[in-house]
Specification:
The chain is mainly α. The chain has a domain of about 60 residues. The protein contains 13 helices and four strands. A hairpin with a 2-residue loop joins strand 1 and strand 2. Helix 2 packs antiparallel against helix 6, helix 6 runs antiparallel to helix 10 and helix 11 runs antiparallel to helix 12. About 35% of the residues are buried.
Length: about 350
């Protein structure tokens, strides 16, 4: 008997090559008739962790009070979720991908259906207003917030892992050539599935992620047949985490990095990462029926805007203050000088 066949038989016996996706695993817990999804918990966790780090590492020392931060977070989440959902609904409806039969369908994102670009647009409108009302220096806030927003995205991508979505194409291995044209009815043999798992393992993808990437059925336009697919959500999460670490170390030690350059870092880094990842996605949002991927188009715009801001601010000499002076220097403050803290109302003792 061929040694390869023997080894494959042993492997398939030890490893479940076709792990079934249990849709109920998306539910964290249930309160009455309401199911709380892991997707929502993961997204909220990323936002809360990022906010807490930003407040205790920078905000508190730079003059922000906890009430302002909590209010900003709550409103930011509301605006972000509304923006993310509307963006998703508008472009899936315009491309005839999803039919929304009722208003409840439009506003229900519990099973997924949020687009980060929509959240960013909404927050970009909200933050300047929030800063104006609270006399906060916008550039300083953005310098602190944007790397942490990217961190929230790093965490949030794992919601896609739970929902088994935002994946790439079928893992390419030589065995696929034996099948000719692959359709949804193609059945991959054990040897092919083993080769796909090994290909993912060689990309340093953990086994628990690989197991989730066996997809037996999907409505995604790029779904071909039951098999293993590339975890694009994982690639995006890891690459963005690397970017955050590099930038946050660099801005502390390189004084040529100015407060507000975090805007350019976010736009350029995330734009490049998302563009690369989007070329692999099987379930992208399209611009109507044009065939243009919205995320790729938006990513190009981000990169152009990021480079433009980096250059123009230096030519125009807009707030040429280093990140060190704005964030780390003793006595630095992110409030404007005319800010007066409102005294907290004291509870009156009952007579």
């Amino acid at each position: 008997m061929n040694l390869t066949i023997v080894l494959n038989s042993i492997y398939s016996y030890l490893v479940n090559l076709r792990p079934e996706y249990d849709r109920s695993s998306r539910i964290a817990f249930t309160i009455g008739n309401i199911s709380v999804m892991w997707y929502a918990i993961i997204i909220m966790s990323g936002a809360i962790i990022g906010t807490l780090y930003g407040y205790y590492r920078f905000g508190k020392r730079l003059g922000l009070d906890s009430d302002t931060v909590l209010t900003g977070l709550a409103l930011g989440l509301i605006f972000g979720i509304i923006g993310a959902r509307l963006y998703y609904v508008i472009f899936t409806a315009s491309a005839n991908e999803i039919e929304y039969k009722s208003f409840l369908d439009v506003i229900n994102p519990r099973d997924g259906g949020l687009a980060i670009h929509g959240a960013l647009i909404a927050v970009a409108i909200y933050l300047p207003i929030f800063c104006k009302l609270n006399k906060i220096k916008l550039l300083t806030l953005l310098e602190i917030a944007l790397p942490l927003i990217l961190f929230a995205q790093v965490v949030g991508r794992w919601g896609n892992f739970v929902n088994q979505e935002a994946f790439g194409g079928l893992v390419k291995v030589p065995n696929l050539a034996n099948y000719g044209e692959i359709t949804r009815y193609t059945v991959l043999d054990d040897a092919t599935l083993i080769a796909q798992r090994e290909a993912l393992s060689h990309m340093l993808i953990p086994n628990f992620v690989i197991n989730r990437m066996y997809i037996s059925y999907s409505n995604a336009s790029g779904f071909l047949c039951a098999g293993y697919y590339y975890p694009t959500f994982y690639f995006e999460s890891v690459l963005n985490l690397i970017g955050i670490i590099i930038y946050m170390i660099a801005r502390k030690h390189i004084k040529k990095i100015l407060v507000g350059d975090g805007i350019s870092f976010y736009l350029i880094w995330y734009g490049i990462v998302r563009f690369i990842v989007e070329t692999m996605r099987t379930d992208p949002l399209y611009l109507g029926t044009t065939g243009i991927k919205m995320a790729e188009l938006t990513s190009i715009i981000y990169i152009v805007l990021g480079i433009t801001w980096l250059i123009v601010r230096r030519i125009k000499k807009i707030q040429m203050i280093s990140c060190w002076d704005a964030l780390y220097k003793e006595g630095a403050n992110m409030r404007y000088d005319d800010y007066v803290m409102k005294p907290k109302k004291e509870k009156q003792n009952e007579q």
